[in-house]
Amino acid sequence: MSILREIAQSLEQGDEEGVGVLVRKALDERHAPLAILHDGLMAGMDVVGLRFRDRDIFLPDVLMAARAMQVGVDLLEPLLSRDGMPVAGRVVIGTVHGDMHDIGKNLVGIMLRCAGFDVIDLGTDVRPERFVDAAQEQEASVIGLSALLTTTMPVMKEVVALVRARGLDARVKVIVGGAPVSEAWAREIGADGYGYDAANAVERVRALMVPRA
Amino acid sequence: MRRVVTWSAGASAPARSDVLILQGLPPGADPTPRIAALYDSALAVYRETAEPRAVVASISPEAFRDVYHGDGRNASRTPLETIAPGARQLALFVATIGERVTHRIQDLFDGNMPALAAMLDSVASAAVDRLTSLLGSGVDSGVVATNDEARAEDWRTLAYSPGYCGWHVSGQRALFAFLRPEEIGVTVRASALMEPLKSVSGVLVTGPRKIHRFAPAFPFCADCPERPCRERIAALSNAAGET
């Protein structure tokens, strides 16, 4: 078995120590850092995502794999930084104003990073202007909004409206999620997508990525 | 009567099966050794950091009617409107496991330990549910019948909370005004969010088993995909040996 396949398998098992050892070994064997990232770590994470989607593994397994992925990325990042880490896209995420719940938002952030996205996490209790300002300043393609309260869900609508008011809706897409949020709610407020869990949010964000001019 | 209740962290620790369901494992699933070890670690952190406490107070049906009305934003028809008048005892409650667990969860996320952070979050959520059960059992709260007393009368105590079953979440404000849970460190924001986050509020309704039964066919039931009321109502029937 190739060492890159071993890295992928080790990551699938959430074996962070094993991933660390194998990535170092692969570097010693002169494998290109980018190949280790793509064909080892990300290949393993892709399998984890599929198995999670199919309910073959569960959230703790995914998060242990995410931790292992980070161990590997930390080793590769200094070597890749000359050309920059390859980025699937940039996403601004946060929990909307009035709401302090962040577990779901944090999980989405972890999953997006594992899928190669550059994630700007604004935290909790974030006002609409801050979401849109950050997306503009950081040239993000997607804004991800989380809410766990029916009383704070309307803030999502304000963000969508603000994106439109600033004429950004062609290049900045808005995806929403959280326990009381639904596909119907996303449609009602004019959001571009709805993620029912962290893994699904990654799929939806991928589909929403707009190539920048 | 109004009481402040405190528990040890161990007394509020939830069952592993309840936690694992929150982590997405199917009910009854046997966790892998790695997941079981993760749960053990999270439970140990919970025991170090949790400060479970509650405030609970009896309330008359008339006073509860005012609290329940709140800001007047409840659904036009709700189950509790018909359940509460049939109650023999009503008690408002707010319970929390404190701030320290929430801070620890964030620290773990910040320290790139997401699996342990998420498991601890589930332990904390299940623990808050357990506090509601402990209060409802009557032994700790002292304001509703104990389970034994309730069974002798064929009564049951169930909890209902703002934000569910047509009781608008803005009802937190009236509930807080009556109960003053600031004494145990729980506050409510304008958005009706309670802080600490891992807190729960509601009313304990004790009365004949049959009053808790209702058909989940209210307009708002369409927005409630999980419908946990079904499980609660089924449990009432099972306890009586009904089918």
3D structure, described in words:
The complex is a heterodimer of chains A (213) and B (243). Chain A is an alpha/beta fold and 213 residues long. Chain A has two domains: 3-80, Orthogonal Bundle (Methyltransferase, Methionine Synthase (B12-binding Domains), Chain A, domain 1); 89-208, Cobalamin-binding domain (Rossmann fold), CATH 3.40.50. In chain A, 55% of the residues lie in helices and 11% in strands. A five-stranded parallel sheet of chain A has the order 2-1-3-4-5, sandwiched between helices. In chain A, strand 3, helix 7 and strand 4 form a beta-alpha-beta unit. Chain A is elongated, with a radius of gyration of 18 Å. Chain B has 243 residues and is α+β, with helices and mostly antiparallel strands. Chain B has helices spanning 9-12, 16-22, 33-49, 61-69, 79-83, 99-110, 114-136, 147-153, 172-179, 228-239, and strands spanning 2-6, 53-58, 89-96, 155-160, 187-188, 194-195, 199-208. Chain B has a five-stranded antiparallel sheet, sandwiched between helices. Chain B has a two-stranded antiparallel sheet with strand order 5-6. In chain B, helix 2 (16-22) packs across helix 7 (114-136) and helix 3 (33-49) packs across helix 7. The termini of chain B are far apart. The mean pLDDT of chain B is 91. The chains are: A alpha/beta (213), B alpha+beta (243). At the A-B interface, helix 4 and helix 5 of A face helix 3, helix 6 and helix 7 of B.
